[in-house]
Specification:
Elements (H helix, E strand, L loop, with lengths): L1 H13 L1 H10 L5 E7 L4 H14 L3 E7 L2 H9 L5 E4 L5 H6 L3 E15 L9 E2 L1 H8 L9 H4 L13 E5 L4 H13 L1 H6 L12 E3 L1 H11 L3 E6 H6 L3 E2 L1 E3 L6 E2 L3 H11 L27 E9 L10 H15 L16 H12 L13 H21 L8
Parallel strand pairs: 1-2, 1-3, 5-10, 6-7, 6-8
Antiparallel strand pairs: 3-12, 4-8, 4-9, 4-12, 10-11
C-alpha cells in the first residue's frame, strides 16, 4: 500500500512536463500574434493561421504579406512579433536588430514561369541563358540560345517581356543568388539582393503581382514561387541542374533533393546566416532554384510593443507548432517539410526566446497545483508512517 501511494505521487511528478505543455497551450486569454514579410511563404502561412486558430480559438495570427524587406523593417522597428523573409538577415540588418534568432520555417522552389500560346510547361533553360534573358541580352523567344536547347519546339518570333519584383523581396534574393552562382556576368553587373538594379522589365508587388503579370501578358516571363505557379495553372521551365546533365522540373521532390544537399549545416540561432544558401546544389534530381524561408524573432520579446510574458509563451507555442505539426500542411501547398536536423536547430532557437531577459515560465496555475499536491502528499505520508524518502547523510 505504501509503495502504491508513493508510486501515484511520483507519477504526478512525472506527468508535470506534459501538463506544462497543455496548460501553456490552453491559455484562456485571447492574443493576436503579429507577423509580416515574405509573400513567398504566404500560402503556407495563411494555412497555418487558419489551422492554428481552429486548434486554439483564442489565438489569432495577423500576418501581413508585404515582402521580405518590409517585414524585416517592421521587425527592426519592433512593431511585430516576428518578421518573415526568404533571405537571411544581412550583417547590417542584424546590427540594426540585435538579439534576434533565425528559424527556418519552410523550403520552397522558384519557377521560371512563362506565357507562350500553344507551348506547355517543360521549356528547357540553363542558368546562363536565364541570366541573359533577365539582363535583356536575349530579347526574342526564338533566339538560337533558347531554340538550340529546345529542338522541335515552335518558339515564336516575339519579344520577351520581363516581369520582376518591384519591392524588397526574399524571392528576388534567392533568384539573384542563383543567377550570381551560374553567371559571372550577372554577378558583376547586377548582383544579389532583395532589391537589384534590374536592367529590363516591369516591376510588380509580391509573388502574386509577378504571377499576375505573367498570367495576363502574352510572351511574358517571370520568376514565381512554386505554389503560386501551381495555384495559377502557370507554365514553367525545366532548369538544368548543377551537374549540367539533366533539365529538372520544379517539384516538391526536386526541391527537397536540392535542400538535402545544401541545408545540412546551419549557423547558431543568433549567428551569421547571411551566407546560408541552397541554390544550385549537386544531384541529378536537384532543382537548382530553391530556398529556405525564415522567421526572425527577438530573443527578448519584452522589446515589442504590447508584449507580455503570457503572450511571449503563446508566440513560442505557435512557433513550436509550425515547425512540428504545422509541417503536415507544407506538401499539399508545394513546400518541402523541414528535415529533422533543421527542426532540431529551430527547437534550440525557440528555447532561447524570453521575456524581459528571463526565461518564460513553462507552467501555469494548474501545473503548479499538481506539483504542489504531489510534494505535499509525499511529505505527509512520510511524516505519518515514518518512511524515509531521502538517503541518510
Amino acid at each position: 500500500m505504501k509503495k502504491m501511494f508513493l508510486a501515484i505521487a511520483f507519477m504526478l511528478l512525472l506527468i508535470v512536463p506534459s501538463t506544462i505543455l497543455y496548460a501553456s497551450a490552453q491559455s484562456s486569454q485571447s492574443y493576436t500574434i503579429t507577423g509580416a514579410g515574405s509573400t513567398f511563404i504566404f500560402p503556407l502561412m495563411d494555412t497555418w493561421r487558419v489551422q492554428y486558430n481552429n486548434l486554439h480559438p483564442n489565438i489569432k495570427l495577423n500576418y501581413q504579406s508585404i515582402g521580405s524587406g518590409a517585414g524585416i523593417k517592421l521587425l527592426t522597428q519592433k512593431t511585430v512579433d516576428f518578421g518573415a523573409s526568404d533571405a537571411p538577415l544581412a550583417p547590417s540588418e542584424q546590427a540594426a536588430a540585435p538579439g534576434t534568432v533565425t528559424i527556418a520555417d519552410s523550403i520552397g522552389g522558384i519557377t521560371i514561369s512563362y506565357n507562350l500560346p500553344g507551348i506547355d510547361k517543360g521549356m528547357k533553360l540553363t542558368g546562363p541563358v536565364i541570366a541573359q534573358i533577365f539582363m535583356g541580352k536575349i530579347t526574342m523567344w526564338n533566339d538560337p540560345a533558347i531554340t538550340n536547347l529546345n529542338p522541335g519546339m515552335n518558339l515564336p518570333a516575339q519579344k520577351i517581356l520581363i516581369a520582376h519584383r518591384a519591392d524588397g523581396s526574399g524571392t528576388t534574393y534567392a533568384f539573384t543568388d542563383y543567377l550570381s552562382n551560374v553567371s559571372p556576368d550577372w554577378k558583376a553587373t547586377v548582383g544579389q539582393g532583395k532589391t537589384v538594379p534590374w536592367p529590363v522589365g516591369t516591376g510588380a508587388q509580391g509573388n502574386a503581382g509577378v504571377a499576375g503579370i505573367v498570367k495576363s501578358t502574352t510572351y511574358a516571363v517571370g520568376y514565381v514561387e512554386l505554389a503560386y505557379a501551381y495555384q495559377n495553372n502557370m507554365t514553367y521551365a525545366f532548369v538544368q541542374n548543377a551537374d549540367g546533365n539533366v533539365f529538372v522540373e520544379p517539384t516538391i521532390a526536386s526541391v527537397a533533393a536540392d535542400a538535402a544537399a545544401g541545408g545540412t549545416s546551419l549557423p547558431a540561432p543568433d549567428g551569421d546566416w547571411s551566407k546560408v544558401s541552397i541554390v544550385n546544389e549537386p544531384g541529378s534530381n536537384s532543382y537548382p532554384i530553391s530556398t529556405l524561408t525564415y522567421i526572425m524573432v527577438y530573443k527578448d520579446l519584452s522589446q515589442i510593443s504590447g508584449e507580455t510574458q503570457d503572450k511571449t509563451q503563446e508566440v513560442k507555442n505557435f512557433l513550436n507548432w509550425i515547425i512540428h505539426d504545422g509541417q503536415q500542411y507544407a506538401s499539399p501547398l508545394l513546400y518541402v517539410p523541414l528535415p529533422d536536423a533543421i527542426v532540431k536547430a529551430n527547437e534550440k532557437a525557440i528555447s532561447e526566446i524570453q521575456f524581459g531577459g528571463s526565461a518564460v515560465p513553462e507552467f501555469g496555475p494548474v501545473t503548479a497545483l499538481v506539483l504542489a499536491a504531489a510534494i505535499v502528499s509525499i511529505i505527509a505520508f512520510s511524516a505519518k508512517t515514518g518512511l524515509r524518502i531521502a538517503p541518510k547523510i
